[in-house]
Design a protein that fits this description.
With about 625 residues, this protein is of the alpha/beta class. Helices cover about 45% and strands about 10% of the residues. The strands form three sheets. The protein has an eight-stranded mixed sheet with strand order 4-3-7-1-8-9-2-10, sandwiched between helices. Strands 11-12-13 form a three-stranded antiparallel sheet. The termini are far apart.
Length: about 625
């Protein structure tokens, strides 16, 4: 009797034993299996709700089909772990942990970058770790609430236990059958044709909207389908060779024989942007005077990039190669994923013209794998923070633009006999904009209703950048040797969503393709210290920069850049969002292979240069 009594008391939960609460404790075999089945059906539903809450979304924004697919993929993950471990608790806790961690990562990425967590972001974890200290990472209400709910749910479900140690042949066969079933169900629901039946699609041009309509976990799964670049439809090496032959036979732009080749200084300024392109922004003082007042010997205007709030390396990839992110999977980082051998670039073209090629970044050499990538892009030397003569920090975090330009000038003055091509990526204006900044010499304020401390810190940084730019222009204006200075921003910053929505006049998840493109605009200019034609360029994407630079410098262009120069006339903007034709019509990137003929040729040539090893 005593042993039996101990046996009953052993399974007590909140004061109840199995006589009082049948679903707890050592349940009969069939009741336990039913409880396990119910928990594996309901827990994924809860996980989907928690992930959406962390993303600032609700399941009300999703269709029933999208909710079902989110739950299904969560269930498949949990059941997969169960099938390979034969441990119910481990499957429940492990699967839920993976899904919840995904929700947390998406929560922080969306807060810091303004765009959701994509599969390709996994490869950027090293670079993200270098700058995470600039952002406020900690517990908040959504995290505390969702974590508490998840722990309670797992505590309840874990009272049901099932464990097998593969001790018998029958168990191994059942597990194998379960794995086959998971594979069949997963493969079937991982096809774009099936997604169309359910009414879900990847919003390539507005991932935030896609994540809200389809759900975060499902959207992540859908995007993983496009992680590997696909060859353009009908692509063959022979077809590419024929197209190259055709382009190389076309008439080339005549090279200026009288003009001395200039030194080319190319500056990509971190997060340099004019927020007035979003809407009517009033500030306590101007913050881009040097740029605004530059009108002599300069071509300037609006430059469209392919990233927002981060992904700096993608803007420099487009600017240095002439390739477009429009033809690559969403969220990928070519520097980290694709550039593993020597590549065609502006640097290789200038190097073949007798230029000395130097890259300079006042940060870490391994950020975005630059130390491996730059030599493959044709740079003979890479100068980083540790090589600088002096480093002056702003916000106690990043080298400021003023000391960056002093180092740039030092490198210019120490050049050899060759003409110099110097590519510089600054870092002063890097997010986040919640850092203590007593060292900012100016405090630019947003005029009007609302409190926007992040925007005001950012605008103050722009004011400081603008003054440093004035010093750089003044130095090269006095140089006797011809210098061509290229300057552009890599992306807009992520600031208070309320301010951005007020300027655009719409919720971020409800933007049209035209409004989304407004968030991908940055200023740019190509200035010379010698007489040259001035022009205002209303719209141009960053991939056209190499062709424009060579044209402005009077340097003979290879066939690829000649093609881009001609394409610019017809389609001045092509980026990850979509494209804009010469009439100003906007088209979204929907990955539907409905590009115009010119863009199909562009995609083919780009794929040939990037991926075709037989060429």
């Amino acid at each position: 009797m005593k042993n039996a009594e101990k046996k009953v008391n052993k399974w007590v939960f909140f004061g109840y034993n199995k006589r009082d609460l049948l679903i707890w404790g050592r349940l009969p075999f069939m009741n336990k299996r039913i409880g396990m089945l119910i928990s594996m059906l309901l827990l994924p539903c809860l996980l989907v709700c928690l992930v959406e809450y962390l993303a600032g979304n609700t399941i009300e924004n999703m269709t029933g089909a999208a909710f079902f697919l989110n739950v299904l993929f969560c269930q498949l993950l949990i059941v997969f772990i169960f099938a390979i471990t034969c441990n119910y608790r481990l499957a429940l806790i492990g699967g839920s942990g993976i899904i919840y961690i995904f929700g947390l990562v998406n929560h922080f990425v969306q807060a810091f970058r303004g765009t959701p967590f994509l599969p390709a972001d996994i490869l950027s974890v090293g670079t993200a770790a270098d700058v995470v200290g600039s952002y406020p990472v900690g517990l908040n209400k959504p995290i505390i609430l969702t974590l508490a709910i998840l722990i309670f749910a797992l505590a309840v479900c874990s009272r049901l236990q099932y464990r097998s140690y593969w001790r018998n042949k029958q168990q191994r066969i059942l597990s194998c059958c379960l794995l086959v079933l998971i594979g069949v169900v997963g493969f079937y629901h991982y096809q774009p044709a099936v997604w169309q039946k359910y009414g879900v699609e990847v919003k390539f041009w507005n991932q935030l909207q896609g994540y809200q309509e389809n759900g975060a976990f499902l959207s992540f799964v859908l995007n993983s389908k496009y992680l590997v670049p696909q060859a353009p439809e009908g692509y063959t090496s022979t077809k590419a060779a024929e197209l190259w032959a055709e382009k190389e036979q076309q008439d080339k732009q005549p090279q200026s024989v009288d003009q001395e080749k200039p030194h080319i200084i190319m500056v990509m300024n971190e997060s340099y942007a004019d927020l007035s392109v979003l809407g009517e922004l009033q500030t306590s003082e101007p913050y881009l005077e040097s740029y605004t007042n530059l009108w002599e010997n300069v071509a300037k205007g609006n430059l469209y990039v392919s990233v927002l709030g981060g992904g700096t390396c993608n803007s420099e990839f487009e600017a240095l190669t002439g390739h477009s992110m429009a033809f690559l999977p969403p969220g990928v980082m070519p520097y980290q994923q694709y550039i593993k051998e020597e590549q065609f670039s502006l640097a290789t073209v200038l190097k073949s013209q007798g230029y000395e090629t130097i890259a300079f970044h006042p940060g870490k050499a391994d950020s975005w794998c630059r130390e491996q990538v730059y030599p493959l892009l044709g740079f003979e030397r890479f100068v980083t923070k540790k090589d600088m003569a002096e480093v002056q920090l702003m916000r106690d975090a990043y080298a400021d633009d003023s000391c960056n330009y002093r180092e740039l000038i030092r490198l210019y003055e120490q050049r050899g006999e060759k003409k110099l091509f110097l590519f510089n990526v600054t870092i002063q204006n890097h997010g986040g904009y919640q850092l203590q900044a007593p060292d900012l010499p100016h405090q630019v304020e947003v005029v009007g209703e609302g409190n926007y401390p992040q925007a005001e810190q950012y605008l103050s940084l722009m004011k400081s950048s603008d003054e440093a730019l004035a010093e750089l222009l003044a130095y090269f204006a006095q140089e006797e040797e011809p210098v061509l200075l290229v300057f552009f921003g890599d992306h807009q910053p992520i600031l208070e969503a309320e301010l951005t929505e007020n300027l655009l006049g719409a919720k971020l998840s409800d933007l049209t393709v035209e409004q989304v493109q407004q968030r991908y605009q940055c200023p740019f200019f190509i200035w010379t210290n010698y007489a040259s034609d001035s022009a205002w360029i209303e719209a141009m994407s960053v991939n056209y920069l190499p062709a424009l630079i060579l044209e402005k410098a009077g340097i003979e262009q290879p066939a690829y850049y000649e093609f881009l120069r001609d394409l610019f006339v017809e389609i001045p903007v092509i980026n990850s969002v979509g494209y804009i034709d010469k009439e100003g019509n906007h088209y979204a990137n929907d990955n539907s292979n409905t590009w115009p003929q010119e863009l199909n040729e562009y995609a083919l040539l780009q794929y040939s240069l990037l991926f075709d090893r037989e060429r």
